[in-house]
Specification:
Blueprint lengths: L4 H5 L7 E10 L5 H11 L4 E4 L6 H10 L5 E5 L33 H7 L2 H17 L7 E3 L10 H11 L10 H7 L3 H16 L7 E4 L8 H13 L4 E7 L6 H6 L3 H10 L3 H8 L4 E2 L2 H5 L7
Parallel strand pairs: 1-2, 1-6, 1-7, 2-3, 3-4, 5-6
Length: about 300
Protein backbone atom coordinates (compact mmCIF):
# COMPACT_ATOMS: atom_id res chain seq x y z
CA UNK A 1 0.00 0.00 0.00
CA UNK A 2 1.02 3.63 -0.38
CA UNK A 3 2.53 5.34 2.69
CA UNK A 4 0.13 6.38 5.42
CA UNK A 5 -0.97 10.00 4.73
CA UNK A 6 -1.18 10.57 8.49
CA UNK A 7 2.62 10.49 8.70
CA UNK A 8 2.96 13.60 6.54
CA UNK A 9 0.13 15.35 8.38
CA UNK A 10 2.02 14.85 11.64
CA UNK A 11 5.33 15.98 10.21
CA UNK A 12 6.92 12.53 9.92
CA UNK A 13 8.59 10.91 6.94
CA UNK A 14 7.46 7.69 5.25
CA UNK A 15 10.32 5.84 6.92
CA UNK A 16 9.64 7.02 10.47
CA UNK A 17 8.54 4.48 13.05
CA UNK A 18 5.65 5.93 15.05
CA UNK A 19 3.99 4.08 17.91
CA UNK A 20 1.05 4.43 20.27
CA UNK A 21 2.04 2.59 23.47
CA UNK A 22 -1.38 1.46 24.53
CA UNK A 23 -2.51 0.09 27.90
CA UNK A 24 -5.41 -2.30 27.34
CA UNK A 25 -8.26 -3.59 29.51
CA UNK A 26 -8.46 -0.70 31.98
CA UNK A 27 -11.27 -1.41 34.44
CA UNK A 28 -11.39 -5.11 33.61
CA UNK A 29 -10.30 -5.72 37.20
CA UNK A 30 -9.22 -3.56 40.13
CA UNK A 31 -5.54 -4.23 39.55
CA UNK A 32 -5.63 -2.61 36.11
CA UNK A 33 -6.69 0.83 37.32
CA UNK A 34 -3.87 1.81 39.73
CA UNK A 35 -1.39 0.22 37.32
CA UNK A 36 -2.55 2.53 34.55
CA UNK A 37 -2.51 5.55 36.88
CA UNK A 38 1.09 4.92 37.87
CA UNK A 39 2.26 4.20 34.32
CA UNK A 40 0.57 7.31 32.98
CA UNK A 41 2.37 9.43 35.57
CA UNK A 42 5.65 7.65 34.75
CA UNK A 43 5.33 8.76 31.14
CA UNK A 44 6.26 5.81 28.93
CA UNK A 45 2.78 4.71 27.86
CA UNK A 46 0.86 7.16 25.68
CA UNK A 47 -2.72 5.88 25.72
CA UNK A 48 -5.17 3.46 27.27
CA UNK A 49 -8.70 2.16 26.83
CA UNK A 50 -11.35 1.24 29.36
CA UNK A 51 -13.88 -1.61 29.29
CA UNK A 52 -17.26 -0.06 30.09
CA UNK A 53 -19.23 -3.27 30.92
CA UNK A 54 -16.61 -4.46 33.42
CA UNK A 55 -16.79 -4.33 37.23
CA UNK A 56 -14.06 -1.71 37.79
CA UNK A 57 -14.99 0.67 34.98
CA UNK A 58 -16.43 3.15 37.51
CA UNK A 59 -13.04 3.46 39.17
CA UNK A 60 -11.43 4.13 35.80
CA UNK A 61 -14.06 6.76 35.02
CA UNK A 62 -13.49 8.48 38.36
CA UNK A 63 -9.76 8.68 37.61
CA UNK A 64 -10.46 10.21 34.19
CA UNK A 65 -12.76 12.83 35.70
CA UNK A 66 -9.99 13.85 38.08
CA UNK A 67 -7.37 13.76 35.30
CA UNK A 68 -9.07 15.09 32.14
CA UNK A 69 -5.76 15.31 30.28
CA UNK A 70 -5.38 11.52 30.24
CA UNK A 71 -5.44 9.78 26.84
CA UNK A 72 -8.26 7.27 27.39
CA UNK A 73 -10.34 5.54 24.75
CA UNK A 74 -13.26 3.12 24.92
CA UNK A 75 -12.29 -0.53 24.55
CA UNK A 76 -15.53 -1.67 22.92
CA UNK A 77 -16.36 -4.99 24.53
CA UNK A 78 -18.43 -7.79 22.97
CA UNK A 79 -16.81 -10.80 24.64
CA UNK A 80 -16.25 -12.08 28.16
CA UNK A 81 -13.37 -14.53 28.10
CA UNK A 82 -12.65 -15.60 31.70
CA UNK A 83 -14.13 -18.74 33.24
CA UNK A 84 -15.53 -17.35 36.50
CA UNK A 85 -15.20 -13.56 36.15
CA UNK A 86 -17.61 -12.30 33.50
CA UNK A 87 -19.77 -9.44 32.21
CA UNK A 88 -22.49 -8.82 29.65
CA UNK A 89 -24.03 -6.11 27.50
CA UNK A 90 -25.24 -2.88 29.07
CA UNK A 91 -27.82 -2.07 26.36
CA UNK A 92 -30.05 -5.15 26.50
CA UNK A 93 -30.77 -8.54 28.06
CA UNK A 94 -32.58 -9.76 24.95
CA UNK A 95 -31.29 -13.12 23.76
CA UNK A 96 -32.42 -12.11 20.28
CA UNK A 97 -29.53 -9.64 20.18
CA UNK A 98 -27.17 -12.54 19.58
CA UNK A 99 -24.74 -11.13 22.13
CA UNK A 100 -25.63 -13.29 25.14
CA UNK A 101 -24.58 -16.89 25.77
CA UNK A 102 -26.43 -19.58 27.75
CA UNK A 103 -24.84 -18.35 31.01
CA UNK A 104 -26.21 -14.83 30.49
CA UNK A 105 -22.95 -13.08 29.55
CA UNK A 106 -21.14 -12.09 26.39
CA UNK A 107 -19.73 -15.03 24.45
CA UNK A 108 -16.26 -16.24 25.37
CA UNK A 109 -14.71 -15.77 21.93
CA UNK A 110 -14.71 -13.16 19.19
CA UNK A 111 -15.61 -15.86 16.68
CA UNK A 112 -18.86 -16.55 18.54
CA UNK A 113 -19.58 -12.84 18.97
CA UNK A 114 -19.13 -12.29 15.25
CA UNK A 115 -21.14 -15.33 14.22
CA UNK A 116 -24.19 -14.76 16.43
CA UNK A 117 -24.24 -11.00 17.04
CA UNK A 118 -27.01 -9.08 15.28
CA UNK A 119 -25.33 -6.06 13.63
CA UNK A 120 -28.06 -3.63 14.68
CA UNK A 121 -27.95 -4.82 18.29
CA UNK A 122 -24.16 -4.75 18.35
CA UNK A 123 -24.16 -1.19 17.03
CA UNK A 124 -26.55 -0.14 19.80
CA UNK A 125 -24.33 -1.83 22.38
CA UNK A 126 -21.17 -0.13 21.13
CA UNK A 127 -22.97 3.21 21.14
CA UNK A 128 -24.24 2.59 24.68
CA UNK A 129 -20.71 1.89 25.89
CA UNK A 130 -19.35 5.14 24.44
CA UNK A 131 -22.35 7.11 25.71
CA UNK A 132 -21.88 5.74 29.22
CA UNK A 133 -18.17 6.59 29.20
CA UNK A 134 -18.96 10.17 28.19
CA UNK A 135 -21.81 10.46 30.70
CA UNK A 136 -19.41 9.50 33.50
CA UNK A 137 -16.87 12.14 32.56
CA UNK A 138 -14.50 10.45 30.12
CA UNK A 139 -13.45 12.46 27.06
CA UNK A 140 -12.67 9.54 24.70
CA UNK A 141 -9.62 9.94 22.51
CA UNK A 142 -10.49 6.93 20.33
CA UNK A 143 -12.42 3.67 20.12
CA UNK A 144 -10.87 0.25 19.76
CA UNK A 145 -12.08 -3.31 20.13
CA UNK A 146 -11.55 -5.97 22.78
CA UNK A 147 -10.23 -9.20 21.25
CA UNK A 148 -10.83 -7.71 17.79
CA UNK A 149 -14.53 -8.50 17.94
CA UNK A 150 -15.72 -5.29 16.25
CA UNK A 151 -13.21 -5.74 13.45
CA UNK A 152 -15.54 -7.79 11.26
CA UNK A 153 -17.27 -6.56 8.08
CA UNK A 154 -20.73 -7.05 9.60
CA UNK A 155 -19.85 -4.73 12.50
CA UNK A 156 -17.43 -2.30 10.82
CA UNK A 157 -20.11 0.04 9.41
CA UNK A 158 -21.51 0.64 12.90
CA UNK A 159 -18.00 0.96 14.32
CA UNK A 160 -17.09 3.61 11.75
CA UNK A 161 -20.37 5.46 12.21
CA UNK A 162 -19.66 5.65 15.94
CA UNK A 163 -16.19 7.05 15.29
CA UNK A 164 -17.57 9.74 13.00
CA UNK A 165 -20.43 10.58 15.34
CA UNK A 166 -18.02 11.32 18.20
CA UNK A 167 -15.11 12.55 16.02
CA UNK A 168 -12.71 9.99 17.48
CA UNK A 169 -10.30 7.81 15.50
CA UNK A 170 -11.12 4.11 15.33
CA UNK A 171 -8.42 1.49 15.70
CA UNK A 172 -8.40 0.12 12.14
CA UNK A 173 -5.43 -1.28 10.25
CA UNK A 174 -4.72 -0.12 6.69
CA UNK A 175 -4.98 -3.63 5.27
CA UNK A 176 -5.58 -4.44 1.63
CA UNK A 177 -7.50 -7.48 0.40
CA UNK A 178 -4.53 -9.79 0.90
CA UNK A 179 -4.05 -8.47 4.41
CA UNK A 180 -7.61 -9.33 5.32
CA UNK A 181 -7.22 -12.77 3.76
CA UNK A 182 -4.15 -13.32 5.92
CA UNK A 183 -6.21 -12.11 8.88
CA UNK A 184 -8.56 -15.04 8.30
CA UNK A 185 -11.46 -13.61 6.31
CA UNK A 186 -12.90 -15.35 3.27
CA UNK A 187 -12.43 -13.90 -0.23
CA UNK A 188 -15.71 -12.02 -0.40
CA UNK A 189 -15.55 -10.55 3.11
CA UNK A 190 -11.86 -9.68 2.63
CA UNK A 191 -12.72 -7.77 -0.54
CA UNK A 192 -15.49 -5.92 1.27
CA UNK A 193 -13.29 -5.10 4.26
CA UNK A 194 -10.50 -3.78 2.02
CA UNK A 195 -12.98 -1.56 0.19
CA UNK A 196 -14.30 -0.17 3.48
CA UNK A 197 -10.77 0.60 4.67
CA UNK A 198 -9.95 2.43 1.44
CA UNK A 199 -13.15 4.46 1.64
CA UNK A 200 -12.49 5.28 5.28
CA UNK A 201 -9.03 6.63 4.51
CA UNK A 202 -10.42 8.67 1.61
CA UNK A 203 -12.73 10.36 4.12
CA UNK A 204 -9.67 11.59 6.01
CA UNK A 205 -10.08 9.31 9.02
CA UNK A 206 -6.62 8.51 10.46
CA UNK A 207 -5.80 4.81 10.27
CA UNK A 208 -2.96 2.66 11.54
CA UNK A 209 -0.39 0.59 9.69
CA UNK A 210 0.53 -2.13 12.16
CA UNK A 211 -0.67 -3.96 15.24
CA UNK A 212 1.90 -5.06 17.78
CA UNK A 213 2.61 -5.51 21.44
CA UNK A 214 3.65 -8.03 24.06
CA UNK A 215 2.01 -11.45 24.13
CA UNK A 216 0.57 -12.87 27.32
CA UNK A 217 2.28 -16.24 27.06
CA UNK A 218 6.01 -15.50 27.20
CA UNK A 219 8.56 -13.50 29.22
CA UNK A 220 6.95 -13.54 32.67
CA UNK A 221 9.76 -12.04 34.76
CA UNK A 222 10.68 -8.37 34.83
CA UNK A 223 14.05 -8.95 33.18
CA UNK A 224 12.52 -11.13 30.46
CA UNK A 225 9.72 -8.64 29.86
CA UNK A 226 12.10 -5.71 29.46
CA UNK A 227 14.21 -7.69 27.00
CA UNK A 228 11.07 -8.75 25.11
CA UNK A 229 9.86 -5.15 24.97
CA UNK A 230 13.23 -3.89 23.70
CA UNK A 231 13.22 -6.50 20.96
CA UNK A 232 9.62 -5.63 20.02
CA UNK A 233 10.40 -1.92 19.72
CA UNK A 234 13.49 -2.71 17.65
CA UNK A 235 11.28 -4.71 15.26
CA UNK A 236 8.77 -1.91 14.65
CA UNK A 237 8.27 -1.14 10.97
CA UNK A 238 7.88 2.27 9.33
CA UNK A 239 4.39 3.66 9.78
CA UNK A 240 2.08 3.91 12.78
CA UNK A 241 1.82 0.95 15.17
CA UNK A 242 -0.82 0.32 17.83
CA UNK A 243 1.37 -1.37 20.49
CA UNK A 244 -0.58 -3.17 23.20
CA UNK A 245 0.40 -4.04 26.75
CA UNK A 246 -1.84 -5.30 29.59
CA UNK A 247 -0.43 -3.88 32.83
CA UNK A 248 -1.89 -4.79 36.21
CA UNK A 249 -0.66 -4.82 39.77
CA UNK A 250 -0.27 -8.14 41.55
CA UNK A 251 -3.45 -8.79 43.54
CA UNK A 252 -5.37 -11.88 44.70
CA UNK A 253 -8.24 -10.89 42.41
CA UNK A 254 -5.99 -10.78 39.33
CA UNK A 255 -4.45 -14.14 40.20
CA UNK A 256 -7.92 -15.65 40.53
CA UNK A 257 -9.11 -14.26 37.20
CA UNK A 258 -6.38 -15.42 34.84
CA UNK A 259 -3.43 -17.82 34.81
CA UNK A 260 -1.73 -15.19 32.67
CA UNK A 261 -1.44 -12.80 35.62
CA UNK A 262 2.42 -12.92 35.72
CA UNK A 263 2.62 -11.38 32.23
CA UNK A 264 0.25 -8.55 33.14
CA UNK A 265 2.23 -7.82 36.30
CA UNK A 266 5.46 -7.94 34.29
CA UNK A 267 4.01 -5.38 31.85
CA UNK A 268 3.28 -3.06 34.77
CA UNK A 269 6.79 -3.48 36.16
CA UNK A 270 8.59 -3.21 32.82
CA UNK A 271 6.82 -0.06 31.65
CA UNK A 272 7.58 1.57 34.96
CA UNK A 273 11.31 0.94 34.63
CA UNK A 274 13.84 3.64 33.89
CA UNK A 275 15.76 1.12 31.80
CA UNK A 276 12.95 0.60 29.30
CA UNK A 277 11.92 4.26 29.22
CA UNK A 278 15.49 5.32 28.47
CA UNK A 279 15.78 2.65 25.79
CA UNK A 280 12.62 3.77 23.98
CA UNK A 281 13.64 7.43 24.18
CA UNK A 282 16.99 6.61 22.57
CA UNK A 283 15.65 4.15 19.99
CA UNK A 284 14.53 6.63 17.36
CA UNK A 285 10.92 5.52 17.73
CA UNK A 286 8.40 8.37 17.87
CA UNK A 287 5.75 7.90 20.58
CA UNK A 288 2.35 9.55 20.10
CA UNK A 289 -1.06 9.20 21.72
CA UNK A 290 -4.52 8.92 20.23
CA UNK A 291 -5.28 12.51 21.19
CA UNK A 292 -2.85 13.51 18.44
CA UNK A 293 -4.77 11.39 15.93
CA UNK A 294 -8.10 12.71 17.20
CA UNK A 295 -7.07 16.20 16.12
CA UNK A 296 -6.95 14.91 12.52
CA UNK A 297 -10.51 13.60 12.49
CA UNK A 298 -12.68 15.22 9.78
CA UNK A 299 -15.53 17.40 10.98
CA UNK A 300 -19.09 16.39 10.11
CA UNK A 301 -21.24 19.22 8.84
Amino acid sequence: MHPNPVLEKLGFSDTDRVVVIHSDDIGMCQASVPAFEELWDFGLISSGATMVPCPWFLEAAAYCRENPQVDMGVHLTLTSEWETYRWGPISTRDLGSGMIDFEGYFYYTSEEAQEYGDPAAVQLEMRAQVDRAIALGIDPTHIDTHMGSAGHPKFLPGYLQLALQHAVPPMIMRMDEQGWLDFGLGPETAKLAALMVAQTEEMGIPLLDHFGGLDLDQAATLEERIAYAKYSFDELKPGITHFIIHPSKDTPELRAITPGWPYRVADYQAFKSDELRDYVQQSGVHVIGYRTLKELMPSIS
